[in-house]
Design goal:
Helix content: under 10%
Number of strands: 22
Largest sheet: 11 strands, antiparallel
Shape: globular
Order of helices and strands: EEEEEEEEEEEEEEEEEEEEEE
Structural class: mainly beta
Number of helices: 0
Strand order of the largest sheet: 1-2-3-4-5-6-7-8-9-10-11
Radius of gyration: 22 Å
Strand content: over 45%
Length: 258
C-alpha cells in the first residue's frame, strides 16, 4: 500500500490519496474544502480506472455533515452505492431528520427523531411508522427486554467491569480478555474466535468450529483496508470506507458487496 501527499489549502504534506496493489489495484483520491475537511473521495479500480465509489460531502455552517452524494460506475444497480442523503439538525445539533434518496430506483426513506430534555431519543418515525422509547430517571431504557443489575449495567460483567456474557432465550455469548484488557476471544455455539493485535489494532483472527477459518488484516491509520483469509475460493477482500464505516467490500475473485 502506498500513500500520496500534496498541498491542501496552502499546507504541504497533506494526504491526498493512496493505492493498494494485490489481486486487485484500488486507488483512492481525496479532495478537501477550505476548512480542511474531505469533501470528495473517488475510489477507482485497476488500469481501467472504473469508479467503484464517488463520495461527495457537504457541511453546514457549523461544520456538521449536511449532504452525502454517492455513486458507483461498477455497481449502478445497487441502491446502497447510489444515493443522496440529507441531514437536518435541531438547535442543539441533534439529528432531527435523515432522508435517503436511492437515485437508481428513485425511492426514498425518511427517519425523524424526537428527543427529551436529556438528549435521549424518545421516538423514531420511519416513513410514517413511529417507534417510541422510554427511560427512567437516570436515562436507562425501560422498554421491554431491558433489565439492569444493581450497578445499572445491562449485561453480565466481571469484577473488573469487563463484559463477559450476553445471553437471551436463543443464544449465549461469552468473552475472554488479555491481561491489558484487550478482547482475547469471542465464544458462542458457532465456535470460538480468537483475536490478535498489532499496535493496538486487531490484525488477525482465528475461528475454531465446524468450519475453521482465519484472517489477517492490512491496517492503515487504525482502519482495515484489506484482508486475507483461508477461504481459498475468495481469499482477498478489500474494504472501502465512508465516514468511518465500511461502505464497500471488494473480493479478490471479483465479487462485490456493499
Amino acid at each position: 500500500m502506498t500513500f500520496s501527499y500534496g498541498t491542501v489549502n496552502h499546507t504541504y504534506g497533506e494526504l491526498i490519496g493512496n493505492k493498494i496493489v494485490g489481486s486487485k489495484t484500488i486507488k483512492k483520491v481525496l479532495s478537501y474544502d477550505g476548512f480542511g475537511r474531505a469533501n470528495r473521495v473517488v475510489v477507482t479500480q485497476g488500469q481501467s480506472q472504473n469508479t467503484l465509489l464517488d463520495l461527495n460531502y457537504t457541511y453546514d455552517s457549523k461544520g456538521k455533515l449536511q449532504r452525502v452524494v454517492v455513486s458507483s460506475e461498477i455497481l449502478p444497480a445497487v441502491p446502497e452505492s447510489n444515493y443522496q442523503r440529507e441531514l437536518l439538525y435541531d438547535g442543539l445539533g441533534q439529528v432531527r431528520q435523515d432522508t435517503t434518496l436511492y437515485t437508481n430506483t428513485n425511492t426514498s426513506t425518511t427517519k425523524q427523531y424526537v428527543y427529551d430534555g436529556n438528549s435521549n431519543i424518545i421516538s423514531i418515525t420511519t416513513d410514517g411508522k413511529t417507534l417510541s422509547r422510554s427511560y427512567n430517571a437516570i436515562d436507562q431504557r425501560t422498554d421491554p427486554g431491558f433489565q439492569y443489575d444493581l450497578n445499572g449495567r445491562l449485561y453480565s460483567y466481571a469484577s473488573d467491569d469487563q463484559l463477559f456474557q450476553v445471553k437471551n432465550k436463543q443464544a449465549r455469548v461469552s468473552f475472554d480478555y488479555h491481561g491489558n484488557g484487550a478482547l482475547s476471544s469471542h465464544n458462542s455455539s458457532a465456535g470460538q474466535t480468537s483475536f490478535f493485535y498489532d499496535s493496538g489494532g486487531v490484525n488477525a483472527t482465528k475461528t475454531d468450529g465446524a468450519q475453521p477459518t482465519s484472517a489477517s488484516y492490512l491496517l492503515a491509520s487504525g482502519s482495515r483496508v484489506a484482508a486475507y483469509s483461508t477461504d481459498a475460493s475468495n481469499p482477498s477482500t478489500y474494504f472501502i470506507e465512508s465516514q468511518g464505516s465500511i461502505a464497500l467490500e471488494m473480493a479478490g475473485a471479483g465479487d462485490t458487496s456493499s
